[in-house]
Amino acid sequence: MTLEWPSSWLDRLRRTGVVAVVVVDDPEDAVPLTAALVDGGVDLLELTLRTPAALEALRRIRPAFPQVGLGAGTVLHPDQVNAVRDAGADFAVAPGLNPRVVEAAERVGLPFAPGVFTPSEIEQAAELGCRLLKFFPASADGTTHHFKAVTGPYAHLDLGYLPLGGLTLERAAEFLSLPGVTALGGSWIAPRELIRKRDWDTIRSNARAIADRVRTLRPLSES
């Protein structure tokens, strides 16, 4: 079994460099939130399944923004794979590694990135055929040291990583320059409190700041 991500999606992840990771409490916020992110230059979104509003938010975003790369996060159970696909998700991720979820995603052809943090988890994910892995938490100690130490022995496997957790705009450059990092997960771009306050201006500004940083680090000629 190989859980492949289409090359077009991998190229898009590298080019955009960041996926905005969000928690939505009110489905009414889904469309204006996405508009703010897109206006700021971030067109990849991971909407986590942490609230009852999540699936409805996905369903609202999909027709309003067909061009957005729409992901579902915190996919913890096999039955959620079908649910997020039917709601319009293009891909899914999880904070941990559940082989049953990996297998469910493979069955329906949904690109999926399980979460890893240890060498054993990376080996298990690779054995299951996963080629793109969410590395969570990415910066538990505020540095890249753990990421580099854990992923280094597997460089020859040509795995891709989506680091998330403990990251900020200031740390983006350091992580984006590391071998194997396909894109970052950015929960700082649109934190839950800003969404609840409907502070779309600040979210737009945050998105623009990281989009500008990515353009500096990854010129189009290199993507």
Notes on the protein architecture:
This protein is α/β, with parallel strands linked by helices and 223 residues long. The protein has a single domain, classed as TIM Barrel, CATH 3.20.20.70. Helices cover 44% and strands 15% of the residues. It contains ten helices and nine strands. The protein has helices at residues 7-16, 30-40, 54-64, 78-86, 99-108, 119-127, 145-151, 169-176, 192-197, 200-217; strands spanning 18-22, 44-48, 69-73, 91-93, 112-113, 115-116, 132-135, 160-163, 184-186. It has a six-stranded parallel β-sheet. The longest helix is centred in the C-terminal third of the chain and has 18 residues, at 200-217. It is globular and about 45 Å long.
Features:
about 220 residues; globular; three-stranded parallel sheet; 10 helices; single chain; TIM Barrel; alpha/beta
Break the fold down into its secondary structure elements and pairings.
Elements: H1 7-16, E1 18-22, H2 30-40, E2 44-48, H3 54-64, E3 69-73, H4 78-86, E4 91-93, H5 99-108, E5 112-113, E6 115-116, H6 119-127, E7 132-135, H7 145-151, E8 160-163, H8 169-176, E9 184-186, H9 192-197, H10 200-217
Helix pairs in contact: 2-10, 4-5, 8-10
- β-strand number: 9
User: Any idea what the CATH architecture is?
Assistant: Alpha-Beta Barrel
Low-confidence stretches: none
Tally of individual helices: 10
Between the first and last Cα atoms, what is the distance in angstroms? 28 Å
- Quickly give the structural class: alpha/beta
> Which CATH class applies here?
Alpha Beta
**Spatial sequence of strands, sheet with the most strands:** 5-4-3-2-1-9
| Shape designation | globular
Strand content: 5-15%
Largest β sheet strand count, sense and barrel closure: 6 strands, parallel
The level of helicity is 40-55%
The helix/strand series, from N terminus to C terminus, equals: HEHEHEHEHEEHEHEHEHH
Let me know the average pLDDT.
94
Give the full name of the CATH homologous superfamily: Aldolase class I
What is the number of domains? Answer: 1
What is the CATH topology classification name?
Answer: TIM Barrel
